[in-house]
């Protein structure tokens, strides 16, 4: 369509990025869509022939500039980033790579946006820009809290990148940042799989701390909706989101332990008994587990960092996103959790079938 708005999504082949592409396809079919990623497009995206694809690494300034120059988008949704997994989240081993992708990659995208006259940019930040200072609790956070205190590498990198994006806001390039809480849904490779693995490890009976600490979770399609709304605000609407950051989540904080129990129940597992580990004892056990990991080289689930995370209270008010963007989470935690676990069951079945076939042919 001549004159259609063009949206470029960095990381559009990933978990959140592909959900954003689908949301645009469903809600804004008149938009031209472009994906910039190092990973190929997913089959579901390929079914829509109108989606263009550029292979580019956001850490490579030349590749980013070339792709954005060729695509000439009106707006960029910058989702691409790196999330350290497992206990690498709590140490400095992957600091250089995390900052290379999340901070330097964002600098490259911003530079190309300015160079080629992009009108708007929506950045996928993270609530960890605030909450990755896990020695503290963050009940009912608002955007009034300052960014810059995160002590873990992911939250620190996202906070720096967010500040870069918001500082770039101008009459020529309108920018805003969205801060999702922990995201889950179909295609999730971190949250649901990690919680599910506790079943096989025999870890489900252990309650770290009180088990009552409230935590925010976000179903992926709700987060995708927030991005569509932010683009509409900056590109076609009043522009009231320009220069602003927004917490986005399901708006339904639940006890962290309760969320885990709900996931395990979807797989037919119920802890046969419960053992409460006081915070101090669990923290010491995490320290011992870290020593074991250092000696054996085998990563353990437990660490001092994971104990802090499991005991932290961290949830945000989404009132600003509701008021400015018109955001309202459409899929509840309960329905989203069922869908996410169903998807993971199917993926496990496929993996098991492939493993059986490999055994047969050996």
Query: Treating each run of at least 4 consecutive H or I residues as one helix, how many helices?
Result: 13
Q: How would you write the strand order of the largest sheet?
A: 3-2-1-4-5-7-12
- Note the quaternary state here: single chain
User: How is the CATH topology of the domain at 6-188 and 214-253 and 316-330 named?
Assistant: Rossmann fold
- The number of distinct β-strands equals 15
Give a description of the structure.
The structure is a single chain. The chain has 362 residues and is α/β, with parallel strands linked by helices. The protein has a domain at 6-188 and 214-253 and 316-330: 3-Layer(aba) Sandwich (Rossmann fold). Helices cover 46% and strands 16% of the residues. It contains 13 helices and 15 strands. Strands 3-2-1-4-5-7-12 form a 7-stranded parallel β-sheet, with helices on both faces. Helix 4 runs parallel beside helix 6 (153-167) and helix 10 runs antiparallel to helix 11. The model has no long low-confidence stretch (mean pLDDT 91). Keywords: Oxidoreductase. InterPro entries: 3Beta_OHSteriod_DH/Estase, Lipid_A_modif_metabolic_enz, NAD(P)-bd_dom_sf. Belongs to the 3-beta-HSD family. One of its GO terms (biological process) is steroid biosynthetic process. Pfam families: 3Beta_HSD.
């Amino acid at each position: 369509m001549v004159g259609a708005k063009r949206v470029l999504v960095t990381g559009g082949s990933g978990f959140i990025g592909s959900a954003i592409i689908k949301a645009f396809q469903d809600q804004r079919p008149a938009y031209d869509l472009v994906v910039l990623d190092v990973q190929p497009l997913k089959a579901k995206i390929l079914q829509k022939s109108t989606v263009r694809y550029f292979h580019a690494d956001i850490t490579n300034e030349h590749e980013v500039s070339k792709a954005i120059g060729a695509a000439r988008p009106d707006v960029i949704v910058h989702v691409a980033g790196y999330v350290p997994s497992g206990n690498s989240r709590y140490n400095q081993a992957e600091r250089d790579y995390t900052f290379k992708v999340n901070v330097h990659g964002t600098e490259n995208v911003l530079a190309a946006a300015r160079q080629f006259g992009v009108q708007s940019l929506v950045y996928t930040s993270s609530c960890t820009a605030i909450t990755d200072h896990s020695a503290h609790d963050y009940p009912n956070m608002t955007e009034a809290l300052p960014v810059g205190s995160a002590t873990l590498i992911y939250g620190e990198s996202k906070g720096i990148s967010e500040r870069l994006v918001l500082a770039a806001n101008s009459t020529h390039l309108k920018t805003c940042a969205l801060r999702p809480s922990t995201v889950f849904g179909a295609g999730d490779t971190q949250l649901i799989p990690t919680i599910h693995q506790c079943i096989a490890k025999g870890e489900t009976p252990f309650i770290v701390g009180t088990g009552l600490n409230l935590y925010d979770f976000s179903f992926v399609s709700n987060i995708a909706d927030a991005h569509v709304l932010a683009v509409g605000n900056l590109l076609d609407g009043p522009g009231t989101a320009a220069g602003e950051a927004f917490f986005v989540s399901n708006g339904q904080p639940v006890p962290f332990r309760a969320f885990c129990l709900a996931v395990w129940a979807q797989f037919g597992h119920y802890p046969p008994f419960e053992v409460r580990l006081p915070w101090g004892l669990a923290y010491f056990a995490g320290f011992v587990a870290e020593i074991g990991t250092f000696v054996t080289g085998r990563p353990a689930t437990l660490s001092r960092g994971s104990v802090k995370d499991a005991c932290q209270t961290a949830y945000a008010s989404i009132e600003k996103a509701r008021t400015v963007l018109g955001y309202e989470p459409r899929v509840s935690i309960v329905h989203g959790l069922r869908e996410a676990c169903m998807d993971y069951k199917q993926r496990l079945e496929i993996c098991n079938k492939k493993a059986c076939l490999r055994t047969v042919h050996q």
